[in-house]
Amino acid sequence: MIGALAEWKGQEVFLRAARELATRASDVRFVVVGGEIYATRGHGDFAPRLRRLAHELGLEGVLAFTGRRDDVPEILRALDVVVHASLEPEPFGRVIAEAMACQRPIVWARGGGADEIVGDTGLTALGVAGGVPSRLAAGIEHVLADPERARRWAGEGRRRVSERFDVRRHVARVQDLYARLTAGRA
């Protein structure tokens, strides 16, 4: 799981799902990539809470916390499954788009911008209800059980993100909009 450490991002749900999977498969490993970015009241103690929860769940040896990293594309390409577990609808879900661009299968919490990013690709089969560890675990198991199908779905995701979220196309659309808005004002 990659993203800012924040309660609404669902890292606790991910850890509970990891516990379920670890009890059924001894060869699975998990990683939480990211750090806390907020220094406001109510924030700043989440990372230690996550580490305590991981210890309580007995995830030592199968789970790593990396902290903030600058090599996210390389990390994404190294993962068999990318997990997005937000408890609230994600406004956009950049990690989802990045995972799709790296052609990785993603198990994602349905809602908000996440649904729009994934669209009608095969990856929709991996969308789960947010906040339910057992559903998240089942989605991850679905990917691990059929890696070839997951690769095909990830290929569809890559095509979609390339078509819909290409930066050159975005810049061209913004430039076109400005040109239409300013036409005739000179």
Task: Provide a quick synopsis of the model.
With about 190 residues, the chain is mostly helical. Helices cover about 50% and strands about 10% of the residues. Strand 4, helix 5 and strand 5 form a beta-alpha-beta unit.
List keywords for this structure.
mainly alpha, three-stranded parallel β-sheet, two-stranded parallel sheet
What does this structure look like?
The protein has about 190 residues and is mainly α. It has one domain (about 5-180): Glycogen Phosphorylase B (Rossmann fold). It has 8 helices and 5 strands, in the order αβαβαβαβαβααα. It has helices at about 10-25, 45-55, 70-80, 95-100, 115-120, 135-145, 145-165, 165-180, and strands spanning about 30-35, 65, 80-85, 105-110, 125-130. Strands 3-4-5 form a 3-stranded parallel beta sheet, with helices on both faces. A two-stranded parallel ribbon has the order 1-2. α4 (about 95-100) links the parallel β3 (about 80-85) and β4 (about 105-110). α1 (about 10-25) packs across α6 (about 135-145) and α4 (about 95-100) crosses α7. The longest helix has 18 residues, at about 145-165. The protein is globular, with a radius of gyration of 18 Å. The mean pLDDT is about 95.
